[in-house]
Amino acid sequence: MKRILLSVVGVAFAGPLFAALKLGVPFADGMVLQREMKVPVWGTADAGAEVSVSFAGQSVRTTAGTNGAWRVDLEPLVASKEGRDLVVTEFSPGNQAIKQSNNQTILHDVLVGEVWYCSGQSNTQLPLRGTNVRFRDRNGALIAQMTDKPCVRYVKAVCEEPKYSVTPEIPPRYDVVWKKFNRKNLMPLNGFSAIGVYFALELHSSLDVPVGIVGSYHGGTNIDAWTPTCGTASRPDLKDVLDRPLFATKEAWDAAPKEMRLSPFNGLNQQRSVLWNSMVAAWCPMAMRGFIWYQGCHNAKEPERYCSKMHALYDGWSQMFENPGLKLCFVQLAPWGEGTIPFIQEAQARFAAEERNASMAVINDVGNLNDIHPRDKELVVKRLAIHALKEAYGWNVRADSPTLAKWEVKDGKFVLDFDHAEGFYVYYDSRDPEARVKELGFEVCGTNGVWKVAGIDNFVGSRTRQGKPTSLPVVRGSRLVVSSPEVPEPVKLRYLHSHPWTGRLYSDVDLPLGAFHVGD
Q1: What is the pTM of this model?
Q2: Which residue, among 503, 497, 491, 478, has the nearest Cα to 424 in the 3D structure?
Q3: Smallest Cα–Cα separation from 400: which of 515, 512, 516?
Q4: How does 339-350 read in b/e, with b if 16+ C-beta sit within 10 Å?
Q5: Peptide bond into 162 cis (omega under 30)
Q6: Tell me: the pLDDT tens digits for 259-271?
Q7: What percent helix, strand, coil does the chain show, rounded to 5?
Q8: 163 phi, psi to nearest 5 deg
Q9: pLDDT tens digit string along 218-249?
Q10: Cα end-to-end distance, the chain, whole Å
């Protein structure tokens, strides 16, 4: 009787002889695989079983480990708009193919092209169409109605509340469904990220290959929550962030000391790594070209740390996705009425200068001072996309906003030389064009520390019509000469550090000059 009972219990806990074959999170019908690099394919099967992955003429086998985990790497693939099957088959330890349907998985309509990730806080989350007039793209409905691109696809990788986890969630708490860019999928309210949509469309238009984009985002969140632990650990100056305890429940959070719950860690979903764990970790090590990032508002009061935190973010993502050449195209914050904005803008620019795989879109001319959510996401993305075309795809284009190369004070004037500019011009409204020259955002001060508005002295030429100016003068070349008659001996200069923080000075290829200061 004991022997019979033990046998029954043993069968009950052992489960079926062959468990259902499962693929990793990215792998579903209609997906896009990354071209021109090794493509990891992974999942679980029975311990010790052989697994075969077949696609585009390749067939690769491996053996599942003792925990059932397996992975193969497909050799680099050529871009293809042809929807093909990716077939994964589990074999018994005796190498006899298992014929049951739950031991063979076939993914249909799989394309090969460019894959990018899209992440950040509310400006990334802002949908193509939304119910809130302040939280939707200004042209979203037009674009949604006019788009039918079956080779461009997206997947929304956002979990429901609670949108955080103190440990990596694999599999995550959301379904992975790849959708085509068409009216049916883009028109619904509060759908996919506007910058994700525009970015994918720009790449597809320029490269003429399939594009897949994954979106994970959450409004009002800090950079630490999106950074994997290994990224934070890579920065010694962030040891205090790494050493912070993690709280899994609201009760534990409410009971924590108040100093543990201050900005930027002022919520369960603001703790280090918790959004990475819940929404991104399961996608690793998917092959992809890079990721776009739009975040910073929540960390605006700690600009002195943001550059290092950007390094931690990039280091963590590139390590976890096993991609040392991973590209990062990110958006510098727009002005919106916060005095700390110039400083975090400078921190973002410093990171872009230090990380060779990162590039930054300057957007200080977009939006308005009363809303942190610029609605013209199409212009924002064009500045992201030209960086991607240059850095990721080798296009011979000028993608960078002007950056200060060197400076000196000569005869009471600041002489500023820039890279990435062969000239400058001012964009102005027609109400008072001459006043715009005086309000470009330059200020200088002497040893007394009193800042005075400064102007550009080396403007040349001006078009007029019927005696009225139709354009402001332009600057020929990459040098600006800046001075103020009120400061005969200037020692410091700053640009866009005072209200309204809005950029009006552009390079000859229509890219705005970003905030900076010298003389400290």
Answers
A1: 0.93
A2: 478
A3: 512
A4: eebbbbbbbbbb
A5: yes
A6: 999 999 999 999 9
A7: 25, 30, 45
A8: -85, 50
A9: 999 999 999 999 999 999 999 999 999 999 99
A10: 87
